[in-house]
Amino acid sequence: MRGVLQRVTRASVAVDGEVVGAVEPPEGLQGLVLLVGVARDDGPEQVAALVRKTAELRVLRGDRSAVDAGAPVLVVSQFTLQGDTRRGRRPSWSAAAPGDVAEPLVDAVVAGLRERGLEVATGRFGADMAVELVVDGPLTLVLDV
Protein backbone atom coordinates (compact mmCIF):
# COMPACT_ATOMS: atom_id res chain seq x y z
CA MET A 1 0.00 0.00 0.00
CA ARG A 2 1.31 3.38 -0.90
CA GLY A 3 0.10 6.71 0.41
CA VAL A 4 1.01 10.23 -0.52
CA LEU A 5 0.44 12.51 2.46
CA GLN A 6 0.26 16.26 2.00
CA ARG A 7 -0.18 18.97 4.61
CA VAL A 8 -2.82 21.43 3.41
CA THR A 9 -4.62 24.60 4.38
CA ARG A 10 -7.67 23.43 2.40
CA ALA A 11 -8.61 20.68 -0.03
CA SER A 12 -11.60 19.37 -1.92
CA VAL A 13 -12.53 16.66 -4.38
CA ALA A 14 -15.29 16.98 -6.97
CA VAL A 15 -17.06 14.51 -9.24
CA ASP A 16 -18.89 15.93 -12.27
CA GLY A 17 -18.48 19.43 -10.85
CA GLU A 18 -20.04 18.53 -7.47
CA VAL A 19 -17.85 18.68 -4.36
CA VAL A 20 -18.13 15.27 -2.69
CA GLY A 21 -15.50 15.76 0.03
CA ALA A 22 -13.57 18.68 1.51
CA VAL A 23 -11.42 19.70 4.45
CA GLU A 24 -11.16 23.30 5.54
CA PRO A 25 -9.29 23.64 8.82
CA PRO A 26 -9.94 26.84 10.79
CA GLU A 27 -7.68 29.78 9.96
CA GLY A 28 -4.07 29.13 10.97
CA LEU A 29 -4.53 25.37 11.29
CA GLN A 30 -3.77 22.59 8.85
CA GLY A 31 -5.31 19.42 7.52
CA LEU A 32 -4.03 16.46 5.53
CA VAL A 33 -4.72 14.92 2.15
CA LEU A 34 -3.99 11.21 1.85
CA LEU A 35 -3.89 9.68 -1.63
CA VAL A 36 -4.10 5.89 -1.34
CA GLY A 37 -2.89 3.32 -3.88
CA VAL A 38 -3.64 -0.32 -3.06
CA ALA A 39 -1.40 -3.14 -4.30
CA ARG A 40 -2.61 -6.65 -5.14
CA ASP A 41 -1.10 -8.23 -2.03
CA ASP A 42 -2.23 -5.58 0.50
CA GLY A 43 -4.42 -6.47 3.45
CA PRO A 44 -5.30 -5.50 7.03
CA GLU A 45 -1.66 -5.19 8.11
CA GLN A 46 -0.96 -2.52 5.50
CA VAL A 47 -4.22 -0.73 6.33
CA ALA A 48 -3.26 -0.56 10.02
CA ALA A 49 0.23 0.73 9.20
CA LEU A 50 -1.08 3.45 6.87
CA VAL A 51 -3.68 4.55 9.42
CA ARG A 52 -1.04 4.68 12.17
CA LYS A 53 1.42 6.68 10.05
CA THR A 54 -1.23 9.13 8.84
CA ALA A 55 -2.64 9.72 12.31
CA GLU A 56 0.64 9.86 14.23
CA LEU A 57 3.30 11.44 11.99
CA ARG A 58 4.34 14.75 13.53
CA VAL A 59 4.07 16.89 10.42
CA LEU A 60 1.80 19.70 11.58
CA ARG A 61 2.85 23.02 13.10
CA GLY A 62 4.25 22.73 16.59
CA ASP A 63 5.56 19.22 15.89
CA ARG A 64 2.04 17.81 16.24
CA SER A 65 0.31 14.87 14.61
CA ALA A 66 -3.18 14.82 13.13
CA VAL A 67 -4.43 13.14 16.31
CA ASP A 68 -2.71 15.76 18.51
CA ALA A 69 -4.15 18.66 16.52
CA GLY A 70 -7.52 17.15 15.58
CA ALA A 71 -6.64 17.82 11.95
CA PRO A 72 -9.16 16.84 9.27
CA VAL A 73 -8.09 14.38 6.58
CA LEU A 74 -9.28 14.06 2.97
CA VAL A 75 -8.75 10.48 1.69
CA VAL A 76 -8.72 9.93 -2.07
CA SER A 77 -8.20 6.53 -3.72
CA GLN A 78 -5.61 6.69 -6.50
CA PHE A 79 -4.65 3.40 -8.15
CA THR A 80 -2.07 5.20 -10.30
CA LEU A 81 0.22 5.35 -7.24
CA GLN A 82 0.93 1.69 -7.99
CA GLY A 83 2.09 2.49 -11.53
CA ASP A 84 5.51 1.15 -12.50
CA THR A 85 7.43 3.53 -14.77
CA ARG A 86 10.83 1.85 -14.66
CA ARG A 87 10.60 0.52 -18.22
CA GLY A 88 9.32 1.96 -21.45
CA ARG A 89 7.09 4.95 -21.98
CA ARG A 90 3.82 3.49 -20.73
CA PRO A 91 3.23 2.80 -17.02
CA SER A 92 2.38 -0.72 -15.97
CA TRP A 93 -0.59 -1.07 -13.64
CA SER A 94 -0.05 -4.77 -12.91
CA ALA A 95 0.78 -4.14 -9.22
CA ALA A 96 -2.49 -2.28 -8.58
CA ALA A 97 -5.28 -4.19 -6.88
CA PRO A 98 -8.53 -4.56 -8.83
CA GLY A 99 -11.39 -2.37 -7.66
CA ASP A 100 -13.26 -5.11 -5.80
CA VAL A 101 -10.12 -5.72 -3.70
CA ALA A 102 -8.98 -2.10 -3.35
CA GLU A 103 -12.26 -0.42 -2.42
CA PRO A 104 -12.81 -2.26 0.90
CA LEU A 105 -9.20 -1.57 1.88
CA VAL A 106 -9.54 2.16 1.16
CA ASP A 107 -12.79 2.10 3.16
CA ALA A 108 -10.89 0.39 5.99
CA VAL A 109 -8.29 3.20 5.97
CA VAL A 110 -11.10 5.75 6.27
CA ALA A 111 -12.75 3.76 9.09
CA GLY A 112 -9.42 3.40 10.90
CA LEU A 113 -8.77 7.15 10.80
CA ARG A 114 -12.28 7.83 12.08
CA GLU A 115 -11.72 5.33 14.90
CA ARG A 116 -8.69 7.43 15.86
CA GLY A 117 -11.10 10.36 16.33
CA LEU A 118 -10.26 12.18 13.12
CA GLU A 119 -12.73 13.98 10.87
CA VAL A 120 -12.39 12.29 7.47
CA ALA A 121 -13.79 13.35 4.11
CA THR A 122 -13.47 11.19 0.99
CA GLY A 123 -13.58 11.17 -2.74
CA ARG A 124 -15.70 8.65 -4.66
CA PHE A 125 -14.00 5.34 -5.40
CA GLY A 126 -13.50 4.67 -9.11
CA ALA A 127 -14.86 8.05 -10.20
CA ASP A 128 -13.10 10.59 -12.39
CA MET A 129 -12.25 13.10 -9.65
CA ALA A 130 -10.93 16.65 -9.65
CA VAL A 131 -8.80 17.27 -6.56
CA GLU A 132 -7.98 20.81 -5.49
CA LEU A 133 -5.63 21.52 -2.63
CA VAL A 134 -3.37 24.16 -1.20
CA VAL A 135 -0.22 22.41 0.02
CA ASP A 136 1.25 24.03 3.11
CA GLY A 137 5.00 24.16 3.45
CA PRO A 138 5.11 22.47 0.99
CA LEU A 139 5.09 19.16 2.82
CA THR A 140 4.58 15.97 0.82
CA LEU A 141 5.59 12.50 2.00
CA VAL A 142 5.42 9.11 0.30
CA LEU A 143 4.30 6.42 2.75
CA ASP A 144 5.16 2.90 1.64
CA VAL A 145 3.75 0.40 4.13
Key traits:
alpha/beta, 6 strands, D-tyrosyl-trna(Tyr) Deacylase, Chain: A, about 140 residues, 3 helices, single chain, six-stranded mixed beta sheet, about 35% strand
Fold and architecture overview:
- By secondary structure, the chain is of the alpha/beta class.
- The chain has a single domain (2-136), classed as D-tyrosyl-tRNA(Tyr) deacylase (D-tyrosyl-trna(Tyr) Deacylase, Chain: A).
- Helices cover 23% and strands 35% of the residues.
- It has helices spanning 44-56, 66-69, 99-115, and strands at residues 2-15, 18-23, 31-37, 73-77, 120-122, 129-144.
- Strands 1, 2, 3, 4, 5 and 6 form a six-stranded mixed beta sheet that branches.
- Helix 1 packs across helix 3 (99-115).
- It is globular, with a radius of gyration of 15 Å.
- It starts with a strand and ends with a strand.
- The relative contact order is 0.30.
- The mean pLDDT is 97.
Radius of gyration: 15 Å
The average pLDDT is 97
Oligomer: single chain
Determine the N-to-C terminus distance.
Answer: 6 Å
Fold blueprint:
Layout: E1 2-15, E2 18-23, E3 31-37, H1 44-56, H2 66-69, E4 73-77, H3 99-115, E5 120-122, E6 129-144
Helix pairs in contact: 1-3
What's the quick description here?
This protein is α/β, with parallel strands linked by helices.
